[in-house]
Structure formats: structure tokens, C-alpha cells
Amino acid sequence: MEIVIAVAIGVLFGSGLWLVLRPRTFQLITGLLLMSYAVNLFIFIMGRLWVDAPPLTLGDGPPDPSAYADPLPQALVLTAIVIGFATTALYLVVMIGSRGLTGTDHVDGEEGDE
Amino acid sequence: MPTSEHLLLLLVVLPFIGSVVAACMPSNARNREAWLAGLVALIGLLVVVYLYQPGGGEVLHYRREWMPLQGVSFSLRMDGLAWVFALLVLGIGLLVVVYARYYMSPEDPVPRFFSFLLAFMGSMLGVVLSGNLIQLVVFWELTSITSFLLIGYWHHRIDARRGARMAFTVTAAGGLCLLAGVLILGHIAGSYELDVVLSVGQAVQAHEWYVPALVLIALGALTKSAQFPFHFWLPHAMAAPTPVSSYLHSATMVKAGVFLLMRLWPTLSGTPEWTWIVGGAGVCTLLIGAFTAIFQHDLKGLLAYSTISHLGLITLLLGIGTPLAMVAAIFHTMNHATFKASLFMAAGIIDHETGTRDMRVLRGLHGALPITATLAIVASGAMAGVPLLNGFLSKEMFFAETLLVGGAESWWLSWAAVAMGVFSVAYSLRFISVFFGTLPDDLPRVPHEPPRWMRFPVECLVLLCLVVGVAPGVSVGPVLENAVVSVLGERTPDYNLAMWHGFNLPLMMSLAALVGGVLFYLLLRRYYGLAARERVPVLHRFSGAQAYETTMLRLSAGAAWLVKWLGTRRLQPQLLLLMLALLVVPALLVQPLPRPRFDPAVLAGADPLFALMWVIGCGCALAAAWQAKYHRLAALILVGGTGIVTSMTFLWLSAPDLALTQLMVETVTTVLILLGLRWLPPRIVPRELNIRIPHSVWLRRSRDFTVAVAGGLAMAVLSYVVLMRPQPPSIGDFFLLRALSEGGGTNAVNVLLVDFRGFDTMGEITVLTIVALTVYALLRRFRPAPESVALPAQQESKIDPASTQTPAEQAEHGYLLVPGVYVRALLPFMALAAAYFFMRGHNLPGGGFVAGLIFAVGVIAQYMLAGTTWVESRLHLRPQRWMAWGLVVACLTGLGAWLLGYPFLTSHTAHLNLPLVGEVHVPSAFMFDLGVFMVVVGSTMLILVALAHQSIRSHRLPAGSPAETRAAARQEAA
């Protein structure tokens, strides 16, 4: 499992990195989305991998922390997902606004020397 | 006295309150403003007089902790020296206010003037009364800022702006040096409290950091007091209104530098370094200032250079460092403030009455302004050091001190002192020359005596000059004694404040200076053509202002050069650097790299299904990366695929809340980007055009590819290494243990969000609201590219019968009739699902975020099917209100805890017994979560609806009357 997650994070991050370095605004937004998956997963695995141990302390008596997944990275990632959505929305609006103003979808607002 | 410490606080606070009040007054309320400012100064003055401690000794304190861990407190301290300075600040302040009332013209916006003036008064009092060094620096910089604002008061004039900028740059830079110096000094002394610092002089001087501290503090003091080589800013500051010049730039603010040197005299003085730095600057300033003053043509310019020279004199006295020199320094500070302030006011009156300050034009004013002329001549006498006036006394003390320096054989300092005396007599004569001769008839205005009360402050100050000059022991003796004792303590020397000490060497020097000065002036007039000279002989080559401007120019040129060579406005190189730094910097920081240790995996062996899932996920990501340029829709769908796999991973790995949120966000994001796709330019696959990709592009791509592969590899390895190590003890246990007992919920993640880290979530929903409003605001101004405005080709197809229908018609009776019914029926179920996830959120996966997104998706589905017009004619959603009420509910829940005496956002669980339902736990976090829910619904809706509306707007945009054009087009199509 660990190796699968690690490879997945690497692939997502690498794809995102490649796209972030591309010149078109849409490539950039796609790259940011992929990178945010990778980063969210990366933060998430700081609590290590747990199967069938969601942090729901449903049993009676004082809960045993070692039987549950770490809730802290989960809460942080939840926040990150929602903020990521807001950032994407903002970026999208800037993207289409810049296209309307400059007439190009190049990230610099003018065609590069391609 | 129990109230004295509060009076001390009042002294500093009152001017600031007055400043705020003055700023709020109407701009034509000249009298009310002046009354307010005068009253503030008068109250302050009375307080200072009341706080006078006969016989010195007792030091008044006011102290409150500010940042106790950093050793910084808000501390006021008044001893004899501070008392004298406070008296100067308030006394002259009061007179300046009276004067300014008549000086300022009715067109000037006076609220600003008096507001700044009062703020300056407060800052200056803060400087002299500070009992803590850090606090002193804060007030010190405040005086720089208020001085900047006051010099630039007539901001439509370029010289005012330039002077203000120059003064601020120099003094504020000095202030930063001072801060650094004070930090070192406080470090050496072990405290920033003045009482402590003053008592450890020996230890400070023996410390290896003494010289840096001294240099930095001296830089602060010398820049503030306009000492060589920083003296150039003061003449340029004369662009300020004359009351400001009189108050800030002669009597008080420029004295802050010498005040600081006096204040820290017990700690820092007495070493060769002190003498050379402080004394050296003093000598140079004294001579340069006095010599340059003679050759000025502007009345205020002359006074400015004279001020520089007198400040140099005080600095030199402090540099000499004997106790008697300290007495002379304090005495001269007081004397200079009185005669120079009155001279500035007189210069202002002349300017006010004649319309010019040019000494080449002004002559014979004695006839027109007899009283002002007499007053100015007396004050000039004090400036020149004529007997029977206060300037004479302190200057004679100065001569006496210079004789002691260098012993019996080295006389150079005495010569310098006499030379300065000669120059000062010469420029004083130059100043009063405007009163003699015949009145020219080509003056801009015909001069008269000024209003009674405009002259009053000058009269007061000149009277003081006389009284102190004739009877120093009676008038200022006790006050001076207090001030001296507070600095020197047991080292206070015996001195005799008297006009007549018998025939001795200092008296001879005074007389020589007087006679020499008169001769020098006459010579210059007769043989040198003083009035016709444009430049100061010899010294014009060393223009500090020029050096300053050159330095500033070089700085900005250097910055521009750096930006040119190191900066770029292009995004890609910036991102590339950022990403490279992301790869390289952590590797450099962690040296040596720890050897990875591989414990047996917790979840050994990969579940094939999980692996397969990620084969799809990674495939999607790679394909998206490949296709994002030419096939945007495909790339978007592929990214969505990766998102779903991520969401499933969260579910698999015990994070149901994350899985839900990710799924919903994924949906909303996809819809969002779909809405945006329409506005991007079409991109054609170049293969069809047979365009060859140039070599450089391949090179760049391979570079980026390498970086991407390296980044991916690094992240993969890092993740694996982390996963292979056992988790260190985490604070997660704390939340798990207390989720139910203290948060009242079993879902630790939700309790964490709405309770333990509720403040964080509060910030998050605020950010969400701000983003939504920003998106809305940006889109209101949105102008699409011309080629995107027309209907997309897909919608214009005439083969499709639906293309002639509006979305609403399609859903009402077109081909979308059946899905339309379904989706409409879906809305209540989505709402129910949202309510369900919301209600259970505290105990089971769910919560405000998820519920809000689910509800938003339900509404968006309606939009997608039936179009904006149809939905909005039936459903009145007001996203802004949702967001506003959400924030209000969240805030009120947080504030509710205050009513019960708990900190903000403390959660409380109520146990309710409802009929039918039974016992229900209602934690207050539930209400908070409701706020989160409302904000999420509102902001998601607002963002999406704002984007969706662009499509309707754009159809309207190009044609003049949209409805008709569209109807015509439709008929044609039919």
C-alpha cells in the first residue's frame, strides 16, 4: 500500500509540475489541480495509513487513541480542499478575465517567443 | 502624590486625542482648531508646571507591562531633564499655536495642520518622557513621520515634497540605526528600562559591543539634530509653514538628537570614541553651519543654518564631556529654543507682511514694523551672544569649556569657537540688516505691523531672553539645576550662573567675537558683494543635498539594474525557479541527509484493487498532463478522474469526511471550469498546419520535463520514506480523547474543525466569502474576447432542432423534458441529503462543509439543465445573504461564549428533551457549523452563478438591441 501511495503522489506531483511550467493558462489551472491532489495526499499520509479505523470515537468509555487514524491531518486536508476550491475559482476568473483583456491565453498576457 | 503618574500619562495621551479631534473638524474652523490645540498645550503646560519637583531628586514614573517577555514595557519617566524638555515642547507649542492661528491663511486646510502639530507634540513628549528605550525609538520615529507630514503640508509645492522626503529619509534612516543601537545597548545592559541602562555605564563601556552601539546611537542622534554630514536636510525642511519651522526645526524636534545624547550621557560618554564621534561632528557642524548661514539670501535659510550651527555647539559641548560642559549644553538648549523660535516667528511675520523672505530685496522694515523689528533685533542679539541676553551666558560657558580642551598648548578648539562666534555675529547682522535702510517700494505687499496676537508669542520669548540674560540665577537657576542633577547625579559641578564673572579669558573671547564679527560683516559687504553672491564660498563644493540626491539616484538605478538582470515579468521562469527551489532548498537545509530507515510496512502488501485504482488515477493524471493544451475538455474529465480516485483513497484509508468533501468539491470544480472553458480561444492541432516545432521549444520542454520527473521522484521517495517510519507522538491523540468528553461529538475531524480549531474555520469561511465576492466583483467588469462573444459553433448547428430553443424551452417541452422532471424532483432529495449529512456531522462523517456543497450541487444541477433564466425566475436564491447570515451566525455563536464568561468560540453542549425525538445533544458548535453550511452554500452559488451569468450577458453585448437580433436570428433559422 505504502509504495502505491508514494508512487501515486509522485506521479500526480510530477504531472502537475510539468503542467505548471507550461505557457497556457488552462494548462496551469490543470497543473494546480493535480498538484493540490498530490499535496493533499502528502499531508494526509503524515498521519500514516489506516484501514477501517476512521476517527469516530463511537465506543463506550474513554477511547483508545491508538485504535484510530490521526484526525489532525484529516482536518487540515479538509480545510485545504475547501480553500483549494476557492483558489481555483479565483484563478479561473482571472484566467478568463485576462483572456478577455489581452486577447490571448498565454500566462504572461502576451504571446511568448515560440 | 497618587495622581502624578496618571498626569504623566495624560501628558502623552492628551495631544494624540486632540490630534484625532482636530482631524475631524471642518476645514474652515480656524478658530476652533486653534482653541483646541491651544487648550491641549495649555493643559499640558499646567500639568508640567504642577509636576515640578523643587530640588530635583524625585523621579516620577508611570509603568504598565506591554510585552513583558521581551522586556518591553510602556513606561514614562520624568526627571529634571525630561521636565525641562517637556516644558519647552509645551510652552513653545502653545506660543506656536497662537502664532499659527494668524499665520495660516484661510485657504489652508487647517484641521490637517493642527492635527499633525498635536500629533507631533504628543510624539515629542513621548520621546522626552520615555522610560524605556524601545518605546523611545517608537516615539522618535513618530516625530520623524509627523515632521514629514508637516514639512509636506503644502504638498502642491515641489520643494515641500522634496524637503519632506529628504528629511524623512535621513531622520528615519537614523531612527533605524538608533533602534539597532538601542537593541545592542539593551542587550549589554540587560534591560531596556532607562533606570537600569543609566546605572550600568561602566559595564557598557567595557563591553566589546560598546563601539557599535555608540556609533549606531550617535547616527540616530546626529541625523535627527542635523549634524554634519547629515545637516543638509534641515535647510530643505524650511519649505514647511513657518510655525512648523519655528516649533519642530528649531525649538524641539531637532533637539531630540541632543536630548538623546544628554539622556544617555551617563552611560555612553567619557570614552575617546564618544569624544571623537560626537565632538568631531559638533565642531564640523558648528563651523560649517555658521559660515554657510552668512551667505544665505533667504531669511529662513539663514536661520536654518544658524540652527545647525547652534546644535553643533551643543553637540560639541556634549562631546567635550566635562560636567560643566553638560551644564552649558542644557542651558544653551533652553536659550537657543527661546531666541531661535522667536526669530523664526519674526521671519514668518516679515514673510507674511511683505510677501517675500529674500534679504536682497528686504530693506528698511524698521519703519513699517517698528515693534517686530525691535523684538527681532533683541533676539538676534541673543543669537549673536550680546551681553545682557541669554545667548551670551551659555556661549560664554562654551568658550570657557573650549579653553579646557587640549590643555595649555593646543588652542585649536578655542580658535574654532571664536571663529564660530565671529560668524554668528556676522549672520546676525545680516539678519537684522533687513530692518535698516530705506523701505523699497517694489515689495509684493505693503508691510504693516501684524495682528496683536501674532506678535504676542514673539514678545513672550524675547522677554524670556532678556529676563534670563539679566537674572539667570533667579529665573532658570533652579530648573537648570534640576536638569543637571538628573543627568550628572553626584558629579554635578559647582557653577555660578551670573552675567558678570569678571574680566577673564572667555569674556575676552566673547568681545573678540563681537568685534571680529562686526568687522567681518562690514568687510564682506564692502569688498565681497555679499548680496550678489549666489554660492557659499569654498563650501558649495561639499553639497550634502547633492550627495543625498546622487545616492538616491544611484540606489534606484542600482535597484532597476538588479530588477533588470535578476527579475522577470514572465511567469514561467518565476515558476521554474520556485519549483527548483522547492527541490533544492530542503535538500540543502537538511544536511547531512538522514539515511532512510525502512521499518516493515504497516500495511504490507498492496491490495490489487487499490493498486488498480491508482493505475487509473495515475493514467488520468499523465493523460491530462499530455492533453491539456489541445483537448481541454478531455483533460478536465481526466483530472476529474484523478480526483475521484483521490476521493476513493481517502475513503479507503479511514478518512470518510475527506472523501465526501473531495467528491463534492470535485463536482463543483468541474462545473466551474466547464463554465470557464467557453471563454478560452480555440486551439488547433498544429499537425494539420504542418508547423515545425523549433529546436528551442524542444529544449525548453525537455528541461521542464526533467524538472517535472525530478520533482515527482523526489515527492515519491519522500512520501515513501515518511510512510516507512513510525509516526511520532501526535497531538491527534489529544483530540481523539477529548472529542466526545469536551467537544460533545464522536467525529473527531468535525469536532476539530468546529470546536478545537473553530477560530481557524472561522477564518476559512471568511476567506471563502471574500473569494466569492471577489469573483463576483471581477466578473462584473468582465469583457470577453471579441471572438468568444458569438454563439459557439456547437450551439449554432442548424441540424439540431434544439438549437432554436432556449434552455428553458428545452426543459419545459423540448428534448430535456424528462431529465428536467427528474432533476427538479432531485432538489428536495438533495436538500434532505444535505440536512442529513449536516445533522449527523458532529458524530458521523458529514458536517457543514459537506452539507453545504451537497446542497449547492443540487441547485447547480437545476441551472445546468434548464438554464439561468428558467431557474432564477422560479428560485430566489440570494447567495450574498446566505454568506452574510452564515458569517453572522458563526460570529454570534462565538460571541455567545463571551456572555457566559468563556473565551471566544468556547463550545457548550445543551441536552434537550424533545417530544417524540427524545434526548438530543445540541452543542453550540452545531450553530457554528450551521454558519459554515450557509457560507459554503452562499459562496459556491455566488461563484458559479456569477460565471454562468456571463453567457447571458455576452449574447446581449455585441448587438445593440439584443432581444430583437436574437429573435430575428431565430426566425431566420426556423
List keywords for this structure.
A: 114 residues, mainly alpha, Helix Hairpins, 3 helices, B: 974 residues, two-stranded antiparallel sheet
Summarize the structure.
The complex is a heterodimer of chains A (114) and B (974). Helix content of chain A is 63%, strand content 0%.
Report on this structure.
The complex is a heterodimer of chains A (114) and B (974). Chain A has 114 residues and is mainly α. Chain A has a single domain, classed as Helix Hairpins (Orthogonal Bundle), CATH 1.10.287. In chain A, helix 1 packs antiparallel against helix 2 and helix 2 packs antiparallel against helix 3. Chain A is elongated, with a radius of gyration of 19 Å. The mean pLDDT of chain A is 89. Chain B is 71% helix and 3% strand. In chain B, a hairpin with a 4-residue loop joins strand 1 and strand 2. With 974 residues, chain B is an all-alpha fold. Chain B contains 41 helices and 4 strands. In chain B, helix 5 runs antiparallel to helix 6 and helix 16 packs across helix 23. The longest helix of chain B is centred in the C-terminal third of the chain and has 33 residues. The radius of gyration of chain B is 39 Å and the shape is elongated. About 1% of the residues of chain B have low confidence. Among the domains of chain B are: 259 residues, no CATH class; 37 residues, no CATH class; 227 residues, no CATH class. Classes of the chains: A mainly alpha (114), B mainly alpha (974).
